[in-house]
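$ ./design --mode recover --in tokens.txt
reading tokens...
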């Protein structure tokens, strides 16, 4: 009981400390204007952008879900994190310069300029439904699972697990809403960065102490724990997934690529941070830095599931793996600190969804349709009220979810498919082709929703070879199939009804916004791709995922990566010297 009280006290202390520091940093900022509230006054630096993007992404859904996948199967689930680096590069080099050059507040503004107001409304509604029915509830549910497993509230208070989850959902929902609604984007970004540092430190501790606990079970320490995994469960270190694994390797090159491009390049929840960059340089720096941090996620979020599989086998649900490992391995004096960081990650994702939802609703639906003359101060005040309403809906809706049967991560990712593929498809067509038209965008979206709804729910009841075959395909391959069909629909519709709007991609905003790109972006992009290849080599049968390890080969590849890093650093230094001489 003394340990529990200490943990709760330290948890509350660090959580309150982050809130106080964040409030102090943003206290002098103007939150009364739409730009100040929604985009942090276009004043975010690269560090805050990276920290906020990472922590928004590293929600309890990732902590719980990814570890659950590796607990049950292997490390193939790391593909969601590691391969996202490709999407961050595309975002930094292609999407972000266009967004900032145009001065967009939301992605639907691009849709209106490219396709017309009807497509803008359609995409806005897709975003809102996705955030309120999938994004926010899954985030709250995952957070409730994590805290219930760590603190075991059901046993302490003599209540059922479902009741404990409901209570936690309500508490997290209310506290998170206070952050999002009262603070605005900059408060969210600052608190995200602080919590992100705490979460990385805490996640490293979970891995280290997890190996130590596993080693103690084998009569040793950290080294014995590492040896136990390498010698007794090397197959779980394999990231090259087969057909029955959480992420088959082929999916990386089909639907996962599209899903990551949507998430990092078009999802309002993520890109709103980059849209608040003080200049293009800081925006690109923040996005690419977030890509680098994503490369660490397999070590921090996926590896714990492998450790838990050896330390605490036979759990009731695979999604209990990470919080159970925390409860079993972390020394009790630091559990409170870790819980504060975990709470920060939950709040980050939750309030990011709320902030994005209220932004899209106000800027793309309510204000343009009903109150175009609404003042900026009135817009912000109403946005806060809308945020409270969205939070209340999520708190009421979330306890009715049942996601444990399919696994938290697969549930969230597969149901996001209802809206992510149509949006990324019409964005890509809108940017790279003049063929796209309003009719094509609408028809393609309707096709995808109908097709994907059938795949998820009713094709299985139609006794035809084609429907049976479709139901047996991985949902990420379904993404790619639907993407190809949507391209055909868009091009056919463009012949029937050509687009009447002329999209001028060369238009530049009229203010003094600095569009100078980051000079190190090319070198960083090359290094990130190289590290991605190395990471897959390491977690494969050619690396650690076999009992017949080849230390010499692993050492050579590691040395090659180190040499490449040094060469790139030398070239950049030489380039800067030449520029300085000029």
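writing sequence...
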């Amino acid at each position: 009981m003394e340990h529990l009280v200490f943990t709760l006290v330290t948890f509350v202390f660090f959580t309150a400390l982050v809130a106080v520091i964040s409030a102090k940093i943003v206290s002098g900022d103007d939150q009364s204007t739409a730009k100040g509230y929604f985009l942090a006054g276009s004043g975010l630096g690269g560090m805050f952008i990276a920290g906020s993007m990472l922590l928004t992404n590293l929600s309890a859904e990732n902590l719980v879900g990814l570890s659950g996948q590796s607990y049950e199967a292997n490390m193939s689930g790391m593909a969601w994190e590691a391969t996202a680096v490709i999407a961050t590069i595309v975002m930094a080099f292609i999407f972000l310069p266009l967004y900032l050059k145009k001065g967009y507040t939301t992605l639907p503004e691009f849709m209106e300029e490219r396709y017309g107001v009807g497509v803008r409304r359609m995409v806005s509604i897709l975003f809102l439904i996705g955030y309120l029915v999938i994004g926010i509830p899954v985030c709250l549910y995952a957070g409730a699972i994590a805290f219930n497993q760590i603190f075991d509230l059901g046993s302490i208070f003599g209540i059922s697990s479902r009741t404990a989850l409901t209570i936690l959902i309500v508490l997290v929902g209310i506290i998170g809403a206070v952050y999002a609604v009262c603070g605005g984007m900059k408060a969210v970004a600052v608190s995200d960065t602080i919590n992100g540092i705490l979460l990385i430190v805490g996640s490293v501790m979970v891995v280290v102490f997890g190996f130590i606990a596993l080693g103690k079970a084998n009569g040793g320490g950290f080294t014995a724990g590492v040896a136990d995994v390498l010698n007794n469960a090397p197959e779980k270190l394999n990231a090259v997934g087969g057909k029955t694994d959480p992420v088959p390797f082929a999916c990386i090159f089909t639907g996962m690529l599209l899903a990551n491009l949507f998430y990092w390049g078009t999802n309002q929840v993520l890109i709103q941070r980059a849209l608040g960059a003080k200049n293009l340089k800081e925006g690109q720096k923040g996005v690419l830095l977030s890509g680098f941090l994503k490369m660490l996620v397999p070590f921090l979020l996926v590896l714990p599931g492998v450790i838990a599989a050896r330390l605490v086998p036979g759990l009731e649900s695979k999604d209990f793996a990470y919080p159970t490992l925390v409860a079993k391995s972390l020394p009790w004096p630091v559990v409170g600190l870790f819980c504060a960081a975990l709470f920060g990650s939950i709040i980050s994702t939750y309030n990011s969804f709320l902030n994005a939802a209220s932004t899209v609703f106000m800027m793309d639906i309510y204000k343009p349709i009903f109150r175009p003359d609404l003042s900026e101060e009135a817009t912000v005040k109403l946005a806060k009220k809308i945020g409270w309403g969205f939070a209340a809906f999520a708190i009421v809706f979330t306890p009715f979810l049942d996601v444990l049967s399919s696994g938290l991560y697969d549930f969230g990712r597969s149901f996001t498919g209802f809206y992510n593929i149509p949006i990324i498809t019409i964005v890509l067509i809108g940017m790279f082709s003049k063929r796209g038209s309003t009719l094509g965008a609408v028809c393609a979206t309707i096709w995808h929703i109908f097709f994907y709804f059938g795949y998820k729910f009713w094709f299985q009841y139609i006794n035809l070879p084609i429907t049976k075959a479709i139901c047996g395909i991985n949902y990420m391959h379904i993404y790619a199939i639907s993407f190809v069909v949507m391209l055909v629909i868009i091009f056919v519709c463009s012949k029937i009804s050509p687009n009447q709007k002329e999209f001028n991609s060369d238009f530049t905003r009229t203010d003094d916004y600095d569009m100078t790109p980051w000079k190190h972006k090319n070198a960083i992009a090359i290094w990130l791709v190289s590290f991605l290849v190395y990471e897959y080599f390491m977690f494969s049968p050619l690396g650690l995922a076999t009992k017949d390890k080849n230390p010499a080969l692993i050492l050579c590849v590691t040395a090659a990566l180190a040499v490449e890093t040094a060469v790139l650093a030398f070239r950049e230094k030489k380039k800067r010297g030449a520029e300085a001489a000029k």
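exit 0
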